[in-house]
UniProtKB/TrEMBL annotation:
Family named by the database record: Belongs to the short-chain dehydrogenases/reductases (SDR) family.
InterPro entries xref list: NAD(P)-bd_dom_sf (IPR036291), Sc_DH/Rdtase_CS (IPR020904), SDR_fam (IPR002347)
Keywords associated with the record: NADP, Oxidoreductase
Family annotation (PROSITE patterns): ADH_SHORT
Protein name in the entry: 2-deoxy-D-gluconate 3-dehydrogenase
Lineage: Eukaryota, Fungi, Dikarya, Ascomycota, Pezizomycotina
Entries under Pfam families matching the protein: adh_short (PF00106)
Length: 207
């Protein structure tokens, strides 16, 4: 279905958080549309499920490892990627969520969430944007916001703050870079649950 809506043949998309869930679905969807994929995974992740699915579609998939909480590693990531591959699209999906009452949220937890969800997103947008501008290229960025960007939530104060920041970051970069050929947008998914299979037996739905 994705290939019927738009064609990304000849493009390469760099995707964070693509090991599972929404990020995995987005990486595979981009590959279905014709893009080659650069997956950014944590060094501790050995999963090849997304890579295997992308290559089964006949697309190329290259994996780089980076910890979103490591600012030095993030600073080195884009130069390393672009030294070997052209990047046309950046998709920021990596994120963490820790649910707890606001009065119980430790600053260490707050810092981890803000770094992973917001600061890392800014660092990668900045680095990829710098790469495009320096090389006279056009590009597209898709950030992952959330329903909490707009409505907040209960027991998710740091997460809601980080995703509110992603919304404003997206608007600011869009305003600054649109005239330079760089489109910056965000998607705001609702709650995502593991897929459930339903079976019908004697008129009853079983899952």
């Amino acid at each position: 279905m994705a290939s019927e809506l738009f064609n990304l043949a000849g493009k390469t998309a760099m995707v964070t958080g693509g090991t599972r869930g929404i990020g995995q679905a987005m990486a595979i969807g981009l590959a279905e549309a014709g893009a080659d994929i650069i997956l950014i995974q944590r060094a501790s992740s050995s999963s090849t499920a997304t890579k295997d699915a992308i290559e089964a579609l006949g697309r190329r998939c290259h994996t780089f490892h980076c910890d979103m909480t490591d600012r030095a590693a993030l600073a080195a990531l884009v130069p390393a990627v672009t030294a070997a591959h052209r990047v046309d699209i950046l998709v920021n999906v990596a994120g963490i969520l820790k649910r707890m009452p606001a009065v119980d949220c430790p600053l260490d937890t707050y810092d981890d969430i803000m770094q992973t969800n917001l600061t890392a997103t800014f660092q990668l947008c900045q680095a990829v944007g710098r790469y495009w501008l320096a090389n006279g290229m056009r590009g597209k960025i898709v950030n992952t916001a959330s329903l909490t960007t707009f409505i907040g939530s209960v027991n998710l104060v740091a997460y809601a703050m980080s995703k509110g920041g992603v919304g404003q970051l997206t608007k600011a970069l869009s305003n600054e870079w649109a005239a330079k050929g760089i489109n910056v947008n965000a998607v705001a998914p609702g709650w995502a649950f593991p897929p459930v299979s339903f079976y019908f037996c004697n008129g009853r739905v079983l899952c």
